[in-house]
Amino acid sequence: MWIFSEKGMISAVAHRDKPGVTLVRARRREHLAAFLASCGPWTGSEICQMPSADYEYRIELSSETFSLLLAAQAMAIDYPNFKGKCDALPDKDYAHALHKVWAVIHTAVARN
């Protein structure tokens, strides 16, 4: 699952060797840290760095913890328009990338 938010982009997958564990990954450390802090100060496991991996930063979470963090982000939505929220982000490169993703998906869905 790819998750794009105003906090950053993360990828979540089932851990291939540990049932009930979700591997949450990001290409930027600050994106993963912001996701983890979505319920308040993060006091869980440390973020691991794997420089040779596609997603360099990762953490293992119980699937329950992951779902609670994801729900907390959903409950914190305070904007009526996500594209508008993106325009106000300080990281203009990330905001531009979000708009590009929107355009690609819009075009792909409109064709079908």
Question: Can you give a write-up of this model?
Answer:
With 112 residues, the chain is an alpha+beta fold. It has 4 helices and 5 strands. The chain has 2 domains: 1-78, no CATH class; 79-112, no CATH class. β1 (2-5) and β2 (8-14) form a beta hairpin. The model has no long low-confidence stretch (mean pLDDT 92).
Q: How would you state the average pLDDT, rounded?
A: 92
Determine the oligomeric state from the structure. single chain
**Alpha carbon gap, first and last residue:** 22 Å
Global outline: globular
Number of helical segments with 4 or more residues? 4
Report helical residue fraction: 40-55%
Strand content: 15-25%
Task: Order the strands across the largest sheet as they lie in space.
Answer: 1-2-3-5-4
Low-confidence stretches: none
Write down how many β-strands occur, each being a DSSP E stretch of 2 or more residues. Answer: 5
Query: Helix- and strand-based class?
Result: alpha+beta
Overall tally of domains: 2
